[in-house]
Design a protein that fits this description.
974 residues; alpha+beta; eight-stranded mixed beta sheet; 26 helices; 40 strands; binds 4'-deoxy-4'-aminopyridoxal-5'-phosphate
């Protein structure tokens, strides 16, 4: 077909067919009746019919599409449908007269009509975030189809179609003639020219075969996997089937991904990798892929602009226009050269690119006089947020210059100063350049032969294989000057005896002005394109690359495996500040999980207090020093009347272990009541009363006989549900007590968290503890409140969790937040219970209550008071709770919201009736939140509750960021 005929086809609007027409055809020609609805299409008419004999799609197209082309599509579907291991595809259904393609005269004249089986499942178009496995599945689908069509041939494959990327250039330029937006027109035209220029020399090596050419987010059908991710496993719409470039098929698929990646063009890479595993592409095909994606984006934008003009009522076209614009914007947001490298790199075929010989730029500067400034995350000179000073890097560079007056920043360093808080996308922290601080007037010479290009003060020396970008030189040369290596480029700007600055970047692509910083995910590829300028300075200025994966391996090798880490691929967290954590690449995360770090990370008052006390004294509590007396007095003062005696230990486990020993000593009995789904610690005794199967899958079968777990009073999913269930839960305790009586055992006591933290911050039903404490005490037992997680002001409305239940325990255990991460725990009880232990010998903990620990403990209490952190937990917690509450009506996965203050639990379920826990979904949601810059983890026996327990210094802004990111995940997918 000539270009003219092809262009005529691009002008075709959809044929005029009403629902009634479709109804008539289905009844008269196929003997089908049912519910009919119209589906979208750019140039055809598609109707779905739900009939008694099944679901079908009626497809009606103009006569301009030759019957032979439709026959080819039908044959391809039948071929693919016969392969039961391949993707699901629709199949043609014969009309009553036995024909699979009918020619019928409709309003607009003769049209061609087909009926196909309908494929169940969701398309991916409206799922904004496609997780890596989904993207990979799309690549696999595209490759499988191409593989199965490899030997398919049919006369109807030789088609002239505007979507054939072999003709993308003329097609786009033709389509643009009707576009009125001049700006867009220019952009598309320029983009097409650049893309086609890159494709042309590769064209010879691009294999041609039958391709579907439309395996897009819109044309695949998917079903949810166990994580609730929509995995595509079926393909519809064979309307663009033709013989074309194999790699163009993948380009179409990849282009459709570009509006799903939050603007990140690298979103396509898992699809490319997956495709290449099944259908290995040759080097030219891999190199042509990105320009083809760009060309496809250009054709899409031009086509929807044109189609909108000729068929203004086509809602399908209008809806797609925004997506297509986004695809185009992302496709044109990165240099072609970068994506070529990224694609080659993703399949392990990035070429080795040795750097040409470079001379020194500054011959008068002795390389060993150049000091290097450390601007990375680990630099100990960073602290207390000084990295957010906009001049900090210059100050540290100037400081490094010190004696020699010459210093350089490091190439390939992830700079902490470029971090961003509350960032959904990892910021550009990786330095592709170096800044050199050196005496003004220092001479600079061309390090290689080249031609000078000037853009104001910005100089680019363009060599054969490399370009040097320099800022900061006084250069007398004119634009276009040719230089030989060693010839003068100019001198460092600034007046005599002052300090000047040079900014240097190398780039292999002379058309590119590379960015100064790039995001961590793009660092590896950019650094191939923009290699290190070390040779220019004569010293190694490269920062050491983070060894995150090696470190994880080292951890695997030497750290006991039962000590798990968060996340399958954890970020390397090396710094904290307030409610934020920073990984080694300078990416920040909002820490919504760290209840241990109660007053926030890196608190200057704590580090100062610890440093002072360490340099003064640290010893054990058998010595007499002020801190242990002062701290014990303060803890007693914070406790209810009667609880006036304190033991200091190092952890929650120790505190609970000791609490059990106190109960045993005070009562002379052993049997303990505890709750199911609880965690109290790892020591032998505290582990014995820990029944959480999330922490220990064998917990329920392996408790010793002195441990009597009772039903967790979980009013959401426990055996009794709703507010008025206190008596039902109390009855379970009475039954347990009766059994203990019957067995002739004596009760030592009862232990539980005052708010059920381990189950997800669930409040106990009203009056529960009052009744239980009464029953326990009536049998001579003591009542222990484990306040390790929920006490100390975290609940906002109460300092102690037990206040919420209106009870006073006999023994209180605390740890975690009381030391803000320093090993510190305490048991607070009455003098008489404490004395009972003394009958059994002395109690001593070598570092429990050490001067340093006591000082930390007091400093934490002072900070909680001075920064009004309990009040903050109330205000910010109430705000956050209201925001999370608002998710319930919008997202069916949200089952319940538990807790108060800054101890909240958001519980996810698959079904509101059965309360089937959405365990895998919760894990996937946490993984997605990490990508968006939020640390969050699941809790509860079913691991389906988000445990929301951030440092108490959480701000309203941070709470909103968390709520926004969570809303985004629930709305866009995970
Ligand atoms: N009690 C509760 C309620 C806890 O959550 C924990 C720790 N998760 C502990 C006790 C044990 O504390 P530690 O890890 O400090 O030993």
């Amino acid at each position: 077909m000539s270009d003219a005929a092809l262009f005529d086809r691009t002008q075709l609007p959809r044929p005029n067919v009403s629902i009634e027409d479709a109804e008539n055809i289905l009844r008269d020609d196929y003997g089908l009746t049912g519910t009919i609805s119209e589906l979208g299409s750019q140039q055809d008419r598609n109707f779905r019919i739900d009939s008694d004999s099944g679901r079908y799609v009626l497809k009606i197209c103009r006569i301009e599409y030759a019957a032979i082309e439709l026959q080819a599509q039908n044959s391809a579907m039948k071929l693919l449908g016969a392969n039961h291991d391949g993707p699901r595809v629709p199949l043609p259904v014969a009309a009553l007269d036995g024909e699979e393609i009918l020619s019928l005269t409709l309003t607009d004249g003769i049209c061609q009509v087909r009926l196909l089986t309908f494929l169940d499942g969701e398309t991916l178009t409206r799922i904004k975030h496609l997780a890596e496995p989904v993207v990979a599945a799309l690549g696999t689908l595209c490759a499988t189809l191409a593989r199965d069509l490899q030997n398919f041939d049919h006369a109807g494959l030789e088609r002239d179609l505007q979507w054939d990327l072999r003709r993308a250039g003329p097609v786009a330029l033709h389509l643009l003639t009707t576009v009125t937006d001049q700006d867009l027109k220019d952009r598309v035209a320029k983009t097409m020219v650049a893309a086609i220029r890159r494709i042309r020399p590769l064209a010879e090596d691009l294999r041609v075969q039958a391709i579907h050419q439309d395996v897009t987010d819109d044309n695949v059908v998917s079903r949810p996997d166990i994580h609730g991710r929509w995995i595509p496993d079926g393909v519809i719409d064979f309307g663009d089937l033709l013989k074309g470039w194999l790699v163009a098929d993948l380009a179409v698929t990849c282009a459709s991904l570009l509006h799903h990646g939050n603007g990140d063009p690298f979103v396509i890479l898992p699809a490319v990798r997956a495709y290449h595993t099944i259908m290995p592409l040759n080097e030219s095909e891999l190199k042509a892929l990105w320009p083809l994606i760009v060309a496809r984006a250009g054709v899409l934008v031009a086509s929807s602009a044109q189609q909108g003009a000729i068929d203004p009522d086509n809602q399908y076209v209008a809806d797609n226009a925004a997506h297509e614009r986004k695809i185009f914007d992302v496709a044109t947001s990165v240099p072609l050269a970068l994506m070529e490298l990224a694609i080659l790199d993703s399949v392990g075929l990035a070429p080795e690119q040795p750097l040409q010989q470079l001379g020194r730029l500054l011959p008068d500067i002795a390389p060993d006089s150049i000091r290097l400034a450390d601007l990375g995350v680990l630099n100990p000179n960073f602290g207390h947020d000084n990295w957010s000073d906009p001049d900090i890097d210059w100050k540290l560079l100037a400081r490094a210059a010190g004696a020699t007056k010459t210093a350089s920043t490091r190439y390939g360093e992830y700079r902490l100063s470029y971090t961003k808080l509350h960032a959904a996308v990892a910021p550009a922290t990786f330095a592709l350049h170096v800044d050199v601080c050196l005496p003004a007037g220092t001479a600079a010479v061309a390090p290689f032969d080249g031609m000078l290009r000037r853009d104001g003060q910005h100089l680019v020396l363009i060599g054969d294989t490399i370009s040097l970008h320099v800022d900061g030189l006084d250069c007398p040369l004119l634009d276009g000057a040719a230089l030989e290596a060693g010839e003068s480029l100019g001198q460092v700007g600034g007046s005599a005896s002052t300090v000047g600055g040079l900014r240097l970047r190398l780039c292999r692509d002379s058309d590119l002005v590379p960015p100064l910083f790039v995001p961590p995910a793009q660092a590896a590829v950019w650094s191939v394109l923009c290699p290190s300028p070390s040779a220019l300075l004569g010293i190694d200025v490269d920062a050491t690359a983070p060894a995150t994966t090696d470190l994880l391996q080292k951890r695997q090798n030497h750290f006991a495996h039962s000590q798990k880490h968060y996340y399958a691929a954890p970020p390397q967290i090396e710094r904290g500040w307030q409610q934020h954590l920073f990984d080694i690449t300078g990416r920040s995360y909002l820490d919504m999980v760290n209840n241990v770090t109660m007053v926030g990370h890196g608190h200057p008052r704590i580090s100062a207090a610890v440093a002072d006390q360490w340099s003064m004294l640290n010893t054990n509590s058998r010595f007499h020093y002020a801190a242990v007396a002062d701290f014990s007095e303060r803890l007693a003062a914070l406790s209810p009347d009667g609880l006036d005696t304190v033991f200091l230990v190092n952890s929650g486990s120790e505190a609970n272990d000791l609490a059990l020993r106190l109960a045993w000593a005070a009562t002379g009995a052993k049997t303990m009541l505890c709750l199911l789904e609880a965690y109290h610690g790892w020591t032998v005794a505290s582990d014995a009363i820990s029944t959480s199967i999330a922490d220990n899958p064998n917990a329920l079968e392996t408790r010793p006989d002195w441990v009597r777990p009772v039903a967790a009073p979980n009013t959401y999913r426990g055996p009794f549900r709703g507010e008025d269930t206190t008596d039902d839960y109390v009855a379970t305790v009475t039954a347990a007590l009766d059994r203990i009586d019957r067995e002739g055992e004596k009760l030592a006591g009862f232990i539980c968290e005052s708010v059920y933290g381990n189950a997800g911050g669930i409040s106990l039903p009203d009056g529960y503890l009052q009744k239980i404490y009464q029953l326990v005490r009536a049998r001579g037992g003591v009542c222990i409140a484990d306040e390790v997680q929920v006490g100390y002001g975290r609940l906002g409305h109460h300092f102690w969790g037990f206040e919420q239940q209106g009870v006073v325990p006999d023994i209180v255990t605390i740890a975690k937040g009381m030391g803000n991460g320093h090993p510190l725990g305490a048991v607070i009880t009455s003098r008489s219970i404490a004395d009972a232990l003394e009958q059994q010998g002395y109690f001593f903990s070598s570092s429990g209550g050490s001067p340093v620990s006591c000082v930390v403990g007091m400093e934490v209490l002072d900070i909680v008071r001075d920064e009004e952190l309990q009040e903050n937990a109330r205000v910010v917690g109430d705000h956050l709770k209201a925001r999370l509450e608002a998710l319930k009506p919008n997202f069916p996965i949200v089952g319940a919201l538990h807790g108060m203050g800054l101890y909240l639990g958001l519980e996810f379920v698959r079904d509101h009736q059965t309360l089937e826990p959405a365990r895998e979904e919760t894990a996937a949601i946490c993984d997605r939140l990490l990508q968006l810059g939020v640390i969050m983890q699941p809790t509860g026996d079913h691991l389906n509750v988000l445990k929301i327990k951030p440092p108490l210094c959480l701000t309203l802004e941070s709470a909103d960021f968390f709520a926004d990111m969570l809303t985004k995940v629930l709305a866009e997918g995970w």
